[in-house]
Design a protein that fits this description.
- With 273 residues, the chain is mostly helical.
- 74% of the residues lie in helices and 0% in strands.
Length: 273
């Protein structure tokens, strides 16, 4: 009886905590369907009395939301692809390939992790200025190309790959590229999905670095668009909430679609190494 009561109380607490966490998102979506008068009413309403799609129509027709959405998709996709290309190969090399100075170099990279990313923004900004990459998609993507966290994550997972399997492939005459492409990548798929989700979310939600690099609002990503829109339409809460809904909807759908692989990669990576 006591165990049953504990389970019921635990379930109720979890449901209450989940509702508290999800309620702001539900209210945001609800407000996005409210006309301006309802969205700004006091006391605030939880549900729209006369639901309307006018806020979304205005966003895409007059506020260039389609362009900002394209910019964010392009930047986040490029950042994810390049991050996986560099971090997966580097993580595998640190885990399974033997080269001079491997351990010292890896320890040095771990030491660099303690340096706050904000300290590297100024020298990186001047480097991009020298290369002529300011106010461009490439300038926004550059910081996401390599990640010490990503290299460490892949390395810890790759340490669990049996050396005998890789050595058998070498004995059979497979090249290092063939081993990596046909054996390593399929076995690293859970951690690749996990790192891809991390990188996509980071690039999609990043506000500070695009704000520093981009000067032309034509290249703005969605976080910058929300900030600009909230200043121009400070009294129109419904439109701002519609913009926020458009911003978070793709990443929520992505996370839900890849949740199983994402959790599997985190759990497997945490017990290896």
């Amino acid at each position: 009886m006591r165990n049953a009561l504990q389970k019921i109380s635990t379930t109720c607490l979890l449901i209450a905590a989940s509702f508290i966490a999800v309620f702001p998102l539900l209210w945001m979506v609800s407000m996005s369907f409210m006309p301006e008068a309802e969205a700004n009413a006091f006391p605030a309403r939880l549900f729209p009395h006369d639901p309307t799609l006018a806020n979304y129509a205005d966003l895409f027709a007059h506020q260039r939301m389609g362009r900002f959405l394209f910019n964010s998709l392009l930047v986040a996709s490029l950042a994810t692809v390049l991050s996986l290309a560099f971090n997966v190969t580097a993580g595998y090399a640190f885990a399974k390939l033997h080269f001079r100075g491997r351990e010292k170099l890896f320890r040095f990279l771990l030491a660099v992790v303690v340096i706050p990313g904000q300290l590297t923004m100024l020298p990186l900004f001047f480097q991009l200025k020298t290369l002529g990459l300011l106010n461009s998609y490439a300038g926004v993507v550059v910081p996401f190309m390599t990640s010490l966290f990503g290299i460490f994550l892949v390395r810890q997972y790759a340490l669990g790959l049996p050396d005998e399997m890789l050595q058998a492939a070498r004995v059979d005459g497979a090249s290092e590229w063939q081993i990596f492409r046909k054996i390593v990548l399929p076995n690293l798929s859970p951690i690749i999905v996990t790192l891809g989700v991390f990188t996509f979310l980071a690039a999609w939600n990043d506000f500070l670095w695009p704000l520093i690099v981009l000067s032309d609002d034509h290249n703005y990503t969605l976080p910058l668009a929300i900030a600009s829109l909230s200043q121009e339409h400070i009294q129109d809460s419904g439109m701002v909430m519609a913009c926020a809904t458009v911003t978070i909807a793709p990443v929520i759908l992505l996370f839900l679609a890849l949740q199983r692989h994402y959790v599997r990669g985190l759990l497997a990576g945490s017990i290896k190494g």
